[in-house]
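Researcher: Structure prediction, please.
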Amino acid sequence: MGLRYERHRSALSLIVATGMFCFVATPAAAAAVSASGTGEAIFVGQIILLLAVGRLLGEAMQRVGQPAIMGQLLAGIILGPSVFGLLLPDVQRAVFPASETQQAMVNGVSQLGILMLLLLTGMETDLKLVRKVGRAAAAVSLTGIVVPFACGFMLGQLLPDSILPTHMGRLVPSLFLGTALSISSVKIVATIVREMNFMRRDAGQIIVASAIIEDTIGWVIIAVIFGIAAHGSLDVWTLGPQIAAIAAFLLFSFTIGRRIVFAAIRWANDSFRSEFPVITMILIIMGLMAEITQLLGVHTVLGAFVAGILIGESPILTQHVEDQLRGLITALFMPVFFGLAGLTADLTILKDGHLAILTAGLVLIASLGKFAGAFLGGQIGGLGVRQAIAVGSAMNARGSTEVIIASIGLAMGALSQNLYTMIVAMAVITTLMMPPMLRRALMSLPMSEQEKTRVEREALDQRGFVSNLERLLLAVDGSPSGKFASRIAGLIAGAHGMPITIVHLDDSEEAPDGPSRQVKEGAKRAAAASKEDDIEAPPEKVHITTRPASLTDRKAITEEARKGFDLLLAGTENTHDADGAFSPAVTAIAAEFQGAFALLAAGTERLPSLSSRMRILVPVNGTPAARRAAEMAFAIARPVGARVTVVYAAAAQGKRDVTRTQEEAVLKDIAELAERYEVGLRTALMPRGSADNAILKTADGTHHLIVMGVSRRPGEELYFGNTAAALLAKWKGTILFLAS
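Model: Predicted structure follows.
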């Protein structure tokens, strides 16, 4: 049924797109539009056409193992003079008229698309990955730029005058050509590496990190070349101050500017009640930084790219917000920009044998120069021959980056129409060559034991719960339970530098800053443990925001919950009664949050001390909820050196009881998780029967905290099931419930 639906939907999309094409492309319709003076209709028709054809060809390219961007670029080539204009020139000119006013409308979307693409590229730039494989990636990127840049520059010096722009001489076109040959497309490279599940392999990380460094250097080079092009020659007295201005902009951006960006995004997220305030702030930041670089005399793309890097590092930026922005860019701006880039290229010039030979030579020089440079860098960086071959194959993908560079060069007159078309053809051909070459090279790479261990560990993290949390919401009062919950929140957040918002539920007029101090204390211990154990890169400082509220103020939780938190951790006094029923206040807190919910329920005994003397018990039964609880217990135990006991405790179900083999498999999975967190673990299998009795028998007198995975049950009152209720009523210690 699903496959049939997908086929019908694809067919319907094709019919609709074809119908729109026929309507817009009909000369009579175009004439009617022109007669009525509504150029906006032509503009809308162009956008629809670029989106529809770009989507269809992008889908087709992905199904044959190529990047969707290539389909969008080919859509423009097909709709342009290369195919559509060759077959039906009058119709093509009616759909895409040559009037300056009409072209300015769609070019405006394209220019905004360049900034949006550079913003997204910057947001996807992983500086932690660059630092992780710095030496090899730096060597690959530097030689991978220098060698092909030199080849491209020399080629520009040798090209015939007829291909060069008449008013620019040779210097600026040669610089643009060298840049176009030297920069890889990080987006396409990362897409192929991720598709092959090589993102965690050593070679995959070096490839992506090298592409990130190349992109960063490339946009700085473009900014410098733009300054040279503005003056038409290499003027040291003019260029020197411009380079100094670029250096000052970058220094400011990655120091003071970084803090300003973080603060602005946090302020928008915390202060506005309207929809998508963070996305609006991101676009404003991008626009302001693009304007700054324009005022410095360099292109706006540098400002947009740097803005993307800073925004991508913001601790307040959740995956949800990033996906929303990526959806807008991918669905609208990418198809329009790459479609127009292909539309501008006229491949009919390749009918000229001389130009065809020059284009083939350009592709050959670009491929050999890039492969040789990256291979040489890999050898200098200490890679083996096979790894260096894989890196050289991957770096040969130009794609989106070269098209953007060529579009800028054409717009400012640094490239002629013919040279622009040759660069676009080179970008298409080298990008189409890369995926099969890279797949072949990567598949032959052996995996060392050390790499295998790291890959397995990171794969375990990907399946994890705590390791994938991005933001934590803490609802606590000033009671001992609230302070204990605050310390636990700090332990969880501190290992990852996770931002925390505290809703301080206190009926007094001025809420004390106790929870904030407790969070900082726990975060400091977790950060120190992460650095000492070298489990991951040392985290940054945990960002804390405090919101005072009344214990009965449900609105405070509601307003914060909508801002995109992954987990709500609550700790208040008197969470439940003697029979195990939760209080109305706790029920109200839980009702306002739809995501994962953790509740600290203190018993009559004194709250435990978060130290190496603490013993934590985790009951498991093979469910995802129990596994998440075990991971949270390990995240709490590791920084303080506590030990954990995991007991398989499930009620008997008659004939469908699980076997001992299945129980042991569940415990083995939990043991692997404990090993990842480097936590001392003891496991136990209890006789089948009452789950609460098995848990109490294990915990009695030897354990201080139970961490239990549960699920919310339907109803107006908060209820986690019979086992949870029985534990609340019978056990005098502290329980931390983690509910899906």
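Model: Residues 179 and 222 are 8 Å apart (CA to CA).
Researcher: Thanks, that helps.
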